[in-house]
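Q: I'm teaching a short session on how sequence maps to structure, and I want students to see two examples side by side rather than one. Could you give me a first protein with its sequence written out and its structure tokens following it? Keep the formatting plain so it prints cleanly on a handout.
A: Of course. Example one:
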Amino acid sequence: MRSRLEVGPADESAWRAALAATPRATFFQTPDWWSLAPLTAKGFRVRCLELALGEERHVWPLLERKAGRWPFAQRELRGNAAGTYAMPLGPGSPSPAFCAAAARWMQGHARTGELRPNPFATIPSVDWGSRRDDATQVVDLAGGIEAVRQRYSRGHRSNIRSGQHQGVVVAPAEGPDDWNAYYAIYEDSIDRWGSAARRRYPFALFHALADLPQGPVRLWLAKVGDQVAAGAVVLTHGDTCVYWHGATARAFFEHRPSNVLHDAIMDHAAASGCGTYDMQPSGGLEGVMAFKRGFGAQSVSSPVYTWKR
């Protein structure tokens, strides 16, 4: 007889305890990231659940909203905000039986849903829904920054030297003015990307990020003189450093600020003990993927699952 999955609420203390026991969790599993959900997933509310199958227990944060009016309202679930990674939290990897039971519960609880399992965790492949293949680009920092630099393309090495020669300097943001300047070049980038831009984030999101602890959350800026040429929002948890968001000012393209920027970020991450620099999926844009490969980034499978009944 198949065990029945028990589902109940989990409070933040249980969430944090489970997170601390999860070896390959990323910043996307932290309560700090989920506190931003109202700014990235309109209409959704955070539901942190404890799922138990026999003796196996995991905490699993999810996003839920109801669409439509009673009596026709339908639930929708998402594994995380902004298409980021989802996973059950707790000691040990979830079993195939647990994951299969969790998938059945999600698909029965919500008419539609979307889930991108954390590619760095051991999460059994079960029937999570219809699969769309995708990949994230990852740089292995374990050998230290000099080993990483040996894997850079010749073009990237040349661009880093060129940028440094032209006066590009990289440092963390120091206050609200730096965040404001970064958002200005992000808006400029959005206009340049046009329909290729997958999302447009509000300034309130970056203001909220600036208010989070500036260790796990860090805005890195490449400047030429006192002007911001490029920037990157980097989110760190455990040994995984995630390049979540970036933008470059078109006026400084020839200064190669993004090359200098990522080199400096990885230098800091490796020195801080991070073993992984996750440059995130590239939306199928070959130019973006090629840029990341120039740093030695390797593709790691990161499929997205959806369901609709």
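Q: Perfect. Now a second example for contrast.
A: Example two:
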Amino acid sequence: MRDTVGHPQRRRVRLGHAVRQEPNEHAEKVFPSLGDWHTLPSAITNPTFPVTGLHNLVQRVPPVVAKPTKEPAVFALNWLSATGSGILLAAILSGLVMGISIPHIFKIYGRPSSRCVSRC
């Protein structure tokens, strides 16, 4: 069939007309028994440290909360998603693409740090 202009008429498909499945159900079929796979990478890439002298010393009291609760003071060192980590990785990969050896790359990137340490 053709429309009024002469183009072939497109077949209309309703969204979701195919098999309806919950996203989690589909993931379990593709990746069975993953368990708690995300806890190990999270422990490596986002270590947490309680702040000494402040952790659980502050209390939240009504009317902010229903019953008094201690407030944790925890520092999360999320180094993998930090901006500098991506920049360093891109700089190392760029050096490798340009044909520079890994020891020479670190020697080049270490020069500004050594100058700062010697002057500070």
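Q: What should students look for in example two?
A: Point them to this: The radius of gyration is 28 Å. Also worth mentioning: The longest strand covers residues 48-50.
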